[in-house]
Amino acid sequence: xxxxxxxxxxxxxxxxxxxxxxxxxxxxxxxxxxxxxxxxxxxxxxxxxxxxxxxxxxxxxxxxxxxxxxxxxxxxxxxxxxxxxxxxxxxxxxxxxxxxxxxxxxxxxxxxxxxxxxxxxxxxxxxxxxxxxxxxxxxxxxxxxxxxxxxxxxxxxxxxxxxxxxxxxxxxxxxxxxxxxxxxxxxxxxxxxxxxxxxxxxxxxxxxxxxxxxxxxxxxxxxxxxxxxxxxxxxxxxxxxxxxxxxxxxxxxxxxxxxxxxxxxxxxxxxxxxxxxxxxxxxxxxxxxxxxxxxxxxxxxxxxxxxxxxxxxxxxxxxxxxxxxxxxxxxxxxxxxxxxxxxxxxxxxxxxxxxxxxxxxxxxxxxxxxxxx
Length: 373
Hints:
Elements: H1 3-14, E1 52-59, E2 70-72, E3 75-79, E4 84-89, E5 95-100, E6 110-112, E7 115-119, E8 124-129, E9 134-140, E10 150-152, E11 155-160, E12 164-169, E13 175-180, E14 190-192, E15 195-199, E16 204-209, E17 215-220, E18 230-232, E19 235-239, E20 245-249, E21 254-259, E22 272-273, E23 278-281, E24 286-290, E25 297-302, E26 312-314, E27 317-321, E28 326-331, E29 337-342, E30 352-354, E31 357-361, E32 366-372
């Protein structure tokens, strides 16, 4: 039996559906934050053409990017390690504006209601008007901000290495509440049904009520992690520093399954997840797809270098970038490579997909945009 047929058979046995391009893959949808949506699924709601070619490059001389772009209303927003926030036209690659801020950025911008939110490595959290790049307000945390912000109603949430999850009024920056854990928060908060999920460096998955910042519960995960959890239904998925990948049933507050093989190293890549497959990159130079119900390995693709960048699922394909500068398009069902582009530089940041285009930035200050031939 081929890997594709085995994949379909496993889906049928589980009662799950095959991937489709229905309501979750609406053409020209935005990519407003690090993993695309508040559930941090890493799944595009925009389609991509079968044949991709480089549309444009935006080059920052002597620059470096570690974050992932946000794409909203035809504009790409991305920040670099030198403290510059850029707005770039998605269609042409032309710079619309740039804003120099105080600290550098490893975090990715989040965009909502015409405002951009991003934290820097000095612990400052900024709100910038997207139209012209005007700074509106900033909030001072006590340590580096690595993760992207997320949203709930009129609130914006972010974590910091000061071991605190902050919840602010999105329009004004007023503190509503903060929730402290025992060690650093490096991930982005994931939000589902009024619950915020934070995978911490204290070796626990924290489930926090967004309304008041109180702990609902915490699930021991056996290892520190800075990975942003992906949530699908009642389950959240993420890897840890000990090389173990976990699925937690958040309603039951218990680990549903774990995956670890002999060659697995620490996970720095955040997973992309649907009801059909959970896909994650590894420091062992692999991209893996796991069955979301069982944790069974569906396929494994070998890259030439580590994959710390987080993959993105676009229809029936997975796009993953490696530290050797290669971007791979893999078949979601089989893991077979369908397309590759080599840049010569490395990737820590992840792809963003919107408006029929894929945008990604590398560690040498280059932003790439791919679209139809």
